[in-house]
Amino acid sequence: MIEVVSTPDGLVSVWASGKVEKHEWEQVTDSVNGAMSQHGQVSLYADLSDLESMSPGAILEDVRFSLKSLTDLNRLGRVAVVTDSTLTEKATAASSRVFSDLDAKVFGQDEAAEARRWVQLERTEGL
Q1: pLDDT-derived band at 87, boundaries 50, 70, 90
Q2: Source organism's superkingdom (predicted)?
Q3: What is the DSSP string of the chain?
Q4: Model confidence at 126: pLDDT above 80
């Protein structure tokens, strides 16, 4: 299951749980695309602490979106990922190393409030 909330200041928040299918992950990519069309920069808060798995279609949708967005990375502000998954943590760290403009940080499940503050701090500093 996916819940996506976009705020007027360009913050997209995502909560994922259980097994996520392609049509559900498209809600995320559509929300980020929509926010990017309305704002100079967009930040992302993704709470994946209850995510069990993603279908192959959802993974391909994420990869497709990521590749398509390579030229827009400068429009992506902070990315806060909440998870206790080592695999997700490593993938996020690898993305930050490969894409030096990407300001992504992983927080543990017990640090969700800190992750919200970190990603929202940038919003209040006037992207």
Answers
A1: confident
A2: Bacteria
A3: -EEEEE-TTSEEEEEEEEEEPHHHHHHHHHHHHHHHHHSS-EEEEEEEEEEEEE-HHHHHHHHHHHHHTGGGGGGEEEEEEE---HHHHHHHHHHHHHSTT-EEEEE-GGGHHHHHHHHHHHHHT--
A4: no
